[in-house]
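W.,

You were right to be curious about this one. When I first looked at the sequence I had no strong expectations either way, so I just let the prediction run and decided to look at it fresh. Below is the sequence, 481 residues in total, followed by the output.
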Amino acid sequence: MVKFLLPLFLLLSLFQLSAQSVNDYRTNGLDGNWTNVAIWEVFNGTTWVPATNYPGQVAGTNDISIIGNSEVTINSTIPNSFNSLSIGPGTMFVDADSSIDTPLITLNTGGIAEWTSNNTDLALPANASIVTNGGNLAEDNPCNATKTITIGSTVFASCNGGGGGVDYDFGDINNNGGTLNVSPTSNGPLCVGQTLNLFANPGGAGSSGATFSWSGTGPGGYSFSSTLQDPTESSITAIGTYTYTVTITDSFSNSISESIDVVVNGAPNPPVSGGNQTVCFGISGTLTATVGAGETVDWYNAATGGTLLLAGNTSYSTSVAGSYYAETRNTTSGCVSTSRVGVILSNKSCTVITNRRITYRVNPGVTGPTGTPTTDMVINFFDDGQNGSGNPFQLQVRNATSVAFNYQIWLQNVPYASIPGLTLGDHTVNTINNGDGTFSYLFTSTSPISAFASRAITGSSGAPSPLGIGAACGCVSFFKL
């Protein structure tokens, strides 16, 4: 015979008293018959109030608790089903043939179920389970084979197990944590391509030496079967929900089945590279990759496997040249892309030039000063914002000699990438990114500057956060062509 059980959630009984639901019942500290309304109170959604019906008298009863060391006697059929019965600390006496329709009875610490008369049976439905969670079924007072529990058609007696159609006695239940049960779990949810691990989690009397049978169904006609207690499955290729059912069968051919669902999520797309980077030796470069909403990037040192360098960031900074690999990870499911994208950081040699107290770098391939350093030019006035945001950019220079000549002005290592409203006058400009957050400007004359003449390069407003103060910044130098 096959009996379908609800999972044996022990936490349900452990936290039953602190997580009430509407139409939960509990004893109020008085003793009496189950059908005596006066011994019960009910939760109305806000607080506990005196009951107007005994639990199970009308449809809709939720969870029932016998607590506070109350003693409740049952000797009849309770007409309506309920979710669960929790006993302890307290006692339930079975005084005559009785029947209750619940899938779960939990005997907590201090909880006892005791049969007070011979030839007395407590009948439970075929889908029911008894869990001993510190409490127990009374095996004596005195022990008798006619004190029984019947679950479906399986009989448990207070003693004389194995005789007279009795498969187990109350001692078997007490010693094994309850009646035969199975509570399947898995390592899900999964990602496509991952291995599924299924766990039967058997328990109760008869679970030792029991056999197992698994079956599974899923998208696209998927099917699965196994006779292992805890099988694995590596053939899941489609996204969706899969259902797995395990049946445990004891040596008396008593069988119980339970099912679980496993969600399988898809792999995200690989990242989109932000492009390879080249930096000067000793300078850090920042590699970037783009992913979709709800996704992030993990960085590795290999296309597969390898060492995780940085988790959960779409950029990775390093000064070490090499190939780095970005992998997409969905932040909700944890699924990762089936491939990684490579991003390369390269190093290059950069020419180092020292001018006064400032060292700057010139990128190879970008023309820097080509003339000869000279002191034949001087600064009349230089203001690029340090004297107030209202002052426009102005660099004014003068030929300090009586001879006309062509020249270059080298404005070095300033922290702005552009000059607002730039007016060059008799100059061209080449802007150079130094790769360290600073920029250099090479102004080249388009005609010779006359003897003792002055020229200016201006902007419509100041550039931000200059280095130094005015001409004393040490960032302007001159070259004669």
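Here's what jumped out at me. Residues 182-265 form a domain with the Immunoglobulin-like fold (CATH 2.60.40.10). And, maybe more interesting for your project: The longest strand covers residues 255-265.

Coffee later to discuss?

I.
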